[in-house]
Amino acid sequence: MDLPREFEERMKKLLKEEYESFIKTYNEMKTQGLRVNTLKIDIDEFLKISHFKLNKVLWAEEGFYYKEEDKPGKNPYHEAGLYYIQEPSAMAVGTLLNPQPGDRVLDLCAAPGGKSTHIAAKLKGEGLLVANEIYPARSKILSQNIERMGIKNCIVTNESPQKLSMKFKNFFHRILVDAPCSGEGMFRKDPATCREWSLDNVSMCAQRQLDILEEAQKMLMPEGILVYSTCTFSHEENEGVIEKFLKKHPEFTIEEVKGFEGFSHGREDWILSEELSLRKTIRLWPHKLKGEGHFIAVLKKQDGEEGKIKNNRKKIDKKSLKYYYDFAKQYLQNPLEGYFILFGDQLYILPEGVPDLEKLKVVRPGLHLGIIKKNRFEPSHALALSLNYKEVKNNIFMDADSSEIIAYLKGESMYFDGKRGWNLVSVDGYAIGWCKIANNMLKNHYPKGLRWVGL
Ligand SMILES: C[S@@+](CC[C@H](N)C(=O)[O-])C[C@H]1O[C@@H](n2cnc3c(N)ncnc32)[C@H](O)[C@@H]1O
Q: What is the ipTM of this complex?
């Protein structure tokens, strides 16, 4: 790989005798991983049904290395949300954040959603996840990934950290700042980051990271946990940012966390700091473990006030839900219930404990159920992916290695002898989308934007 000269020189100076083994990794293959979505399938069952050649990632029980030839990105199980393709080192962040069912968690820099979907799996459907992304186009991709993984208790916002912190004062039990960074740890995975690297950019990133952390800390409850992570090696963006943050916020301390084989500690000596607790931060190096470069700091807020959040939301008039209930009676074993909310004609169920979202740009205020049309209800793709086939009355089952499932994913209509009306299509028993049956024809409702092309 063609690395920036200044980057190589810096790393040589810092790593000294370790440099040779570090630099050799750039001639090796990048590591690739997938994380089983335990919201939909348990790990043993996944290992039984998938024919991938997988090896365990040490620091994430749901994480596995896969082999390129298995092409897990182009597989019906992927579309059914049975796993998320995630760089193995990145899985350490969810492990160390360690969210508990019932927690309120904020993922402040969330797109495309690797860590958010990991957090959601750990919440096991209980509690609240707010997944935020500042760029509109990226927030849509984040929302799609949340939906594919069948997550019900997540709202997706498209806001700046400043705007969010005005709303959610001292509200979250756990916050993740997976900060935008110079990406030095991802050069093998993403050569574009390598081309864009400069020392000026490193400094700019460090300032932006501090600004983001400043907003994040306002939203954390006392005793809450704030995890800061980057995928870069630069000490300015790692130990440097944490040192500056702690100086300004003595109410935070660095937590001692469970290490895993291959993890290294932070380098306070690289920023000439006497703050020895910086050693408790974690570094993941490609020459010491099977993964790309990462930095993780787990911080705890010792004191402060707990926030009170108002919720003046009016309950929705049940009459406007008539078409939803007609649909649910005809097609679901039991109607999904909860706190309903209508955004225009789009119907959602809000997760529990969501405060008033007024004045925020909300991409997805919870589980999208569908659209209330003039005289009927049309179920959403998100609803399909959040269901188990046992919750639905009409089902169509397809095998993962059948030509039918490929045709379905390509958006084709086909002859099919099934029950009239809406049917849930499943691959090996895992929901993948809707179709409608009429006159022995299957009308395909797999979303246009997700359809497979060129196979
Ligand atoms: C490292 S990526 C996040 C990856 C994500 N957590 C995951 O695991 O899939 C950082 C994200 O921060 C966003 N970002 C950029 N500038 C930002 C800012 N000023 N405030 C908050 N987020 C920002 C980027 O658009 C990007 O999506």
A: 0.99
Report yes or no on 334 lying in a domain.
no
Q: Judge whether 34 lies within some domain.
A: yes
Confirm or reject: Cβ of 208 under 6 Å from ligand 1: yes
Q: DSSP code of 289?
A: S
Task: Tell me which residue has tokens 């109607």.
Answer: 335
The CA-based dihedral angle spanning residues 437, 441, 444, 445, taken in that order and rounded to the nearest 10 degrees? -20
Question: Is there an atom of ligand 1 within 6 Å of 283 CB?
Answer: no
In whole angstroms, what is the distance from residue 18 CA to residue 287 CA?
9
Number of structural domains found in the chain: 2
The pTM assigned to this predicted structure is 0.97
Residue nearest to atom 1 of ligand 1 (CA): 180
Please state whether the peptide bond connecting residue 112 to the residue before it is cis, i.e. omega within 30 degrees of 0.
Answer: yes
How far does residue 139's CA lie from ligand 1's centre (Å)? 10
Distance, in Å, from the CA atom of 292 to the CA atom of 347, rounded to the nearest integer, reads: 41
Q: Residues at the annotated binding site?
A: 109-115, 133, 178
Instruction: Convert the pLDDT of each residue in 146-194 to its tens digit.
Output: 999 999 999 999 999 999 999 999 999 999 999 999 999 999 888 899 9
pLDDT in tens, 34-80: 999 999 999 999 999 998 999 999 999 999 999 999 999 999 999 99
Residues acting as catalytic residues: 231
* Other Cβ atoms within 10 Å of 249 Cβ, number: 16
Does 175 contact ligand 1 (Cβ within 6 A)?
Answer: no
C-alpha of residue 110 to centroid of ligand 1, in Å = 6
**Are 274 and 418 in a shared domain?**
no
